[in-house]
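User: Some background: our group keeps a shared notebook of sequences we're curious about, and every so often someone picks one and asks for a predicted structure to add to the entry. Today it's my turn. The entry only has the sequence so far, pasted here. Could you supply the structure so I can complete it?
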Amino acid sequence: MKRSKFSEEQVIYALRQAEAGTPGGDRCRQFGVAEATFYAWKTK
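Assistant: Of course. Here's the predicted structure to add to the notebook entry:
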């Protein structure tokens, strides 16, 4: 299985930004991930 290029800390930071109310598209563009990837992180 391929390893993620994002560390756990980066994923947690992105999820906290989402809780703070940052819009979805802006958040994904800022971190350079697809929206599908972001929602996969969120479900974990």
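Suggested note for the entry: The first helix runs from residue 8 to 20. The chain has a mean pLDDT of 85.
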